[in-house]
Amino acid sequence: MTGLGLLWPNAAPDTAAQQRREGFTRVRQKVAFGADDQNECVTAVLAYLRSVADVEVVQPSDTWPEFSRIVGEKVATGEADYGVLMCWTGTGTAMAANKVKGVRAAQAWDPWIAESARRWNDANVLALSLKRTAPDVAVDCVKAFLSVGESDPDERDTIALIQDL
Questions:
Q1: Hey, which residues are catalytic here?
Q2: Which residue among 20, 56, 83, 121 sits deepest, i.e. has the most Cβ atoms within 10 Å of its Cβ?
Q3: 21 in any annotated domain
Q4: What separation, in Å, do the N-terminal and C-terminal C-alpha atoms of the chain show?
């Protein structure tokens, strides 16, 4: 039984990504979330995430690089399917998360960028500005990011090159 309460035959794979690859459907994604401040934008994003995913909120530590690393590690190890990070600009958290091997964090400011980062770059962490993004736009960015099930197959070879950098 998964966090959704859905009954799977035998043991279901641990993450939504694994379940999609193995033919399972109707799974809630696991999302690791971190933010270094609290405001209307953060509240809106968290409310949306909690309505569509199992969310683990990484408690802010002393610095945004630390919680960004923790979110990145959760994604890289498969504890979470995706990560969402929010800081004043979104830039610092993306930079910090990208230091974790296996993380492909992308900063987005509109839904097209967020969706395209998943589709064409296989981004697995979304970074948003909590100061310069309107709450409804931030939620739309998260919706767009999570709406892409798999990256574009035509880009897989190019995306694989990132791992070798």
A1: 87
A2: 83
A3: no
A4: 39
Residue for token pair 């296989």? 122
User: Residue 89 belongs to a domain with what CATH number?
Assistant: 3.40.1400.10
The H-assigned helical ranges of the chain are 16-21, 40-52, 64-76, 91-97, 111-121, 135-147, 156-163
Beta bridge partners of 126: 84, 106
Please choose, from the candidates 72, 54, 60, 53, the residue with its C-alpha nearest in 3D space to the C-alpha of residue 34: 60
Q: For the segment 10-68, what is each residue's pLDDT rounded down to a tens digit?
A: 334 455 555 555 555 547 999 999 999 999 999 999 999 999 999 999 987 768 999 99
Question: What is the domain extent for residue 46?
Answer: 28-163
How many domains does the chain divide into?
1
Residues 56 and 74: beta-carbon distance below 8 Å: yes
Task: Please name which of 102, 51, 93 lies closest in space to residue 74, comparing C-alpha atoms.
Answer: 102
Q: What is the pLDDT of residues 126-152, one digit of tens each?
A: 999 999 999 999 999 999 999 999 888
**For residue 85, with 0-12 CB atoms within 10 Å meaning exposed, 13-18 middle and 19 or more buried, which class applies?**
buried
- Asked if 68 and 80 touch (Cβ cutoff 8 Å), the reply is no
